[in-house]
Amino acid sequence: CFEPRQPRLKKCAGDIPRLANETIFTMNEVEALYELFKKLSSSIIDDGMIHKEELQLALFQTPSGENLFVDRIFDLFDEKKNDVIEFDEFVHALSVFHPNAPMEDKIDFAFRLYDLRQTGFIEREEVKQMVIAILMESDMTLSDDLLEAIIDKTFADADADKDGRINSEEWKDFVLRNPNLLKNMTLPYLKDLTTLFPSFVFNTKVED
Amino acid sequence: VSPVTMNAFELISTSQGLNLSSLFEK
User: Fold this and answer.
1) Residue A82 has what DSSP assignment?
2) Residues of chain A with C-beta less than 8 angstroms from the C-beta of B22
3) Is the pLDDT of residue A169 over 90?
4) How far is A59 from chain B (nearest CA, A)?
């Protein structure tokens, strides 16, 4: 199955239809995703689970260093909150990034991503923290006045009830007016999984 | 383009940490 510490075991045929049923992927696409998962989950520790360092390595080509956004992505993928990403969690989360996934799901995922403290609101301090993180990541500097001006403008646009925080309804209205904010919530690669990972056919257990 | 006209989330969404397409690239 896709159980931790048994990465080389053959997948349970029953897991594939279950995951296909729970997500937007076909059964063969789930198998193709397993090829990607095997690669990512064995890049540092070959134990059939993706550790944060492995995600960091895949995204930044270096396993070291801290990145606020990697932390958030990791937390959202890690449904069971056991500090690793298991295969079913990987498939569930990537399903949201499929070009055909419902827009509502992408909006909700992005909201949870930016709601750093998970209070149900995106707060001004959280936005400031994320802007500072992106500036550090890209070696850019901005004066504090400019930083505050950017955040003021964003809240003037997004925070309709002016309570200093963005709730999920305000977020939805805001991203529908600014759809480019959801660009990174769609991965065109997910439409071509069986072409990208053709080796799934050597291990296939199902026929779509 | 003045940075003040930028939206904070536009800036944030450019993070490499949020660019999951790199999972599919070598």
Assistant:
1) S
2) 58-59
3) yes
4) 6
